[in-house]
Amino acid sequence: MAGEPTATHHRAYIRRVGWAARTGAAGSPRGPASPAPKVNHMSRVHKGRRGSSRSRPPARDEAPDWQPVEKKEIVDTIVKLARDGKTGAYIGLVLRDQHGVPNVQLATGKTMTQILQENGVAPQLPEDLQNLIRRAVHLQGHLATHRRDLHNARGLALIEARIRRLATYYRRVGKLPADWRYTPETAQLVVE
Fold it and tell me: In terms of pTM, does the model score above 0.90?
């Protein structure tokens, strides 16, 4: 049968048509490919996963009526706990659990950071940056004794990347001096 294509011709045809169909090139049996829709999903910084899915509390514009504590008492409690060396997160837990204040900003009209700055007890570094630096220092100590722990060595690199990224943001908005830089050697001093 002289008119039928050989197996070699058939494979070449499949390769050519298959490639054209996959890429949407001209001459494809399916025609030009349409671009895939772009969907922007928020995800984790150093993971391949998506963000957390959970219920959110309903948005509020004002403090609830059942809140038992007055604005002056809330501010005094915040300043007293900050002078005792407590962090903002701990102060928020105390206000929520012991004093029944669900949201400081709704109750006082100011954020906790603003209240701390007005009373001169704000920390030198923002709390989230301080926590990341504390984690990095802890991992540095671990890696000093366990040099071959490559999993935690990578974890330290990722934490330091977060620190630098956050420091860039805080320098841009003016919460850190323009010449502030993170270095692993000075991180120990910052934590202490």
Answer: no
Chain center to CA of 121: 26
> Domain ranges in the chain?
71-118, 127-191
Closest by CA to 109, choosing from 63, 78, 58, 77, is: 63
- pLDDT per 10-residue tile (average), the chain, 192 residues: 60 59 55 58 73 78 87 96 95 94 92 95 93 96 96 96 96 94 87 75
CA–CA separation, 111 and 19 (whole Å)? 59
Q: What is the CATH number of domain 127-191?
A: 1.10.287.10
Interhelix angle 150-173/127-145, nearest 10 degrees: 150
With the CA atoms of 100, 105, 108 and 114 taken in that order, what torsion angle do they form, in degrees rounded to the nearest 10? Answer: 130
